[in-house]
Amino acid sequence: MSTSEVREPAVARPVRHPESGRRYSLEELEALAAEGDPWALGKMDEWDLSFSDVYKGSLTDRCPDPGCDQYGEPVTLCYGEDGELLDVDHGGWGHPPAAEIQAKAS
To answer: Do residues 82 and 105 lie in contact, with contact meaning Cβ atoms separated by under 8 Å?
Structure first.
């Protein structure tokens, strides 16, 4: 076996460490976590444990949009201050209401 081939060590990418004292938005934390930053991964876990239940919908309504693939499935209907239907939230994704549905809600 020959050892004449010398392998160069792989150049490591610089790690993006969080800045001390800076407040990060959820989107920034998600981006850092997606890059594998361990601090951001820990913060995302903390957020999930502490706050995710506040942001989850009740899913007690039914999707009123006949054009939706999940028509009639449980959703959370999101209304504006004026009572206008703004969004149909399916839990992990959502869509704006169809024009005829929004007209009925008003």
So the answer is: no
Write out the two tokens for 29.
């934390």
pLDDT in tens, 69-102: 999 999 988 888 888 888 998 887 889 988 766 5
Side chain identity, residue 47: W
SS3 70: coil
d(CA 70, CA 75): 9
86 burial (CB, 10 Å; 0-12 / 13-18 / 19+) is middle
- Single out the residue of 46, 22, 44 nearest to residue 33, CA to CA: 44
* H, E, C per residue of 7-64: CCCCCCCCCCCCCCCCCCCHHHHHHHHHCCCHHHHHHHHHHHHHHHHHHCCCCCEECC
CB-facing half-sphere around the CA of 85: CA atoms within 13 A: 22
Ranges of each domain in the chain: 26-55, 61-105
